[in-house]
Amino acid sequence: MTGPAELLRDFVNTYDVEGDADELASPAELSVWLRERGLIGDDDRAADEDLAVATQLREGLRAALRGNHDGGPYEVPEGLDAALAGLPVRVTLSAGTPALEPVRSGVAGGLTRLAALIPAAHADGTWPRLKVCAESTCQWAFIDSSKNRSRSWCSMRVCGNRTKTRAYRARRQAEGTPRPS
């Protein structure tokens, strides 16, 4: 079973910043994505408004995950706050177990279930480990599994190397040192 952080990561990664590819480019694609993860029923269909909320939620989450690099408190991105305000939940006690349940049904309910994973990830300790790549051209979401939670890039081989090479070249250029050929 996928945990809350994994599902949130997968949702943020439905848009590939570097390749400008969106898995949720239409309401139908949003419906399929939510259905495949058990967040909506077989008969639920997304509308344009649902897609707009999903996009706002996704990009708001991406912005919030940038704040997880610092480890301290940060302001909730405006877009995320607005998306969450439109996804009301209620607290239930089913068989004595507290849960957050969507107030609305259908796709809006599925997006609310997704948003309810934020406090679930916080409760299980994975929220602070959920980050986006510090490489500005990437922004891929990942779960930082390093012992001291210091990982900055989705991949040290690719994005970490790009960033470090760029910084090295900038230092060399600032020093006026000719680059080796």
TrEMBL record:
Zinc finger CGNR domain residues: 129-172
User: Domain of life here?
Assistant: Bacteria
- Spell out the Pfam families in the cross-references: ABATE, zf-CGNR
Task: Give the protein name, as stated in the record.
Answer: Zinc finger CGNR domain-containing protein
